Amino acid sequence: MDLETKLELIKRPPTEEIITEEELRELLQTNEHPEHYIGFEISGLLHLGTLVLSGYKINDLVEAGARCKVFLADWHSFINNKLGGKWENIERAAKYFGEGFKFFCPKAKIVLGSEVYHNNDEYWKDVVRISKRITLARVTRCLTIMGRSEKEKLDFAQYIYPPLQCVDVKYLGSDLPHGGMDQRKAHVLCREAFPKLKWKVPIPIHHHLLMGLAKPPEVKSKEKIEKVIAAKMSKSKPWTCIFVHDTKEEIEDKLKKAWCPEKTVDSNPVLELAKYIIFRENESFEIEREEKYGGNVTFESYEKLEKTYREGKIHPQDLKLNVAREIDKIIKPIREYFEKPENKKLVELMKSFEVTR
Q1: Domain hosting residue 42, numbered range
Q2: Do residues 23 and 165 both lie within one domain?
Q3: Contacts of 229 (CB under 8 A, 6+ apart)
Q4: Are residues 247 and 134 located together in one domain of the fold?
Q5: b/e map of 269-286 (b: 16 or more CB within 10 Å)?
Q6: What is the rounded CA–CA span in Å between residue 326 and residue 271?
Q7: Where are the alpha helices (DSSP H) in the chain?
Q8: Mean pLDDT of residues grouped by 10 in the chain (357 residues)?
């Protein structure tokens, strides 16, 4: 595969940022199979943002020749009090996450945090080494990577989280660490601190954060990323989240209630699903509607759909129902995979955690 094709695959949506594209080009000229990783906390049911949107980018990177790893961050999950902060819950849930990514990203390697950290003295030495090169104030500014605020009352272990994530980059994806835009601060910290230790400086890749279905919350922060993080699809708000296990009826019900103001395209979660999911899977998107409302209409690009919606020529309810239809088709193979007896037990286990947490 030629260099330009690789670059286009890596830059392809949902990619929003590469730090930097020039460095990426130089890397690919000398390294046909760069090391990549993306890490996930182990908590809750998989949804469109965690498995599907992230999985699209992982698969792009695999196709571009990267050696991709999906890192199941059990230690980070424990530190961040996921699944009640119970090791046994996290260990069992890791199997569920592993199955999801094995299915959706079959060419990526699944790596469990404990496998990397166990009996690895050099890893823990590196955690101390990098901690000596960054200030507490700098770590505190990175707390949003774990969904925390600087104003929250945290235990000391949570302040270890950013240095741990930096060292993960060195050991797992020293070329191309990857995450949603909410992980940017940790990756920038790597680029600041690694030269001080003479470690290879990584080239981070950040993908779009899929919006939740609710009206975006008002955020006082002037930083755009803080507003994006506040509005992202989150399993902690299940009514705004489309899980990969949702039935057709559940998807329709959630989308009927979704925030989708007429003629509004900015921060419209229903249009986001069309842009990042439906047009990723299909070359066109058909809006089915009664003749008295204009009849069926097919869009060959997201840009045309957005323009037509902005002009008020598509009613929000028609958009919602047709997006629901296509999302159900896309999710169906994943849903059916988890309906296998051995996998269904894992789903039931995860749902029990949701009830008891």
Answers
A1: 3-207
A2: yes
A3: 144, 147, 181, 182, 209
A4: no
A5: bbbbbbbbbbbbeeeebe
A6: 13
A7: 3-11, 21-30, 54-63, 74-79, 87-104, 113-117, 121-131, 136-140, 157-172, 184-193, 224-231, 248-256, 269-273, 279-281, 302-310, 316-337, 341-356
A8: 96 97 97 97 94 98 98 95 91 96 98 94 96 93 72 82 96 97 95 97 97 90 80 89 97 97 96 98 96 94 98 97 98 97 92 67
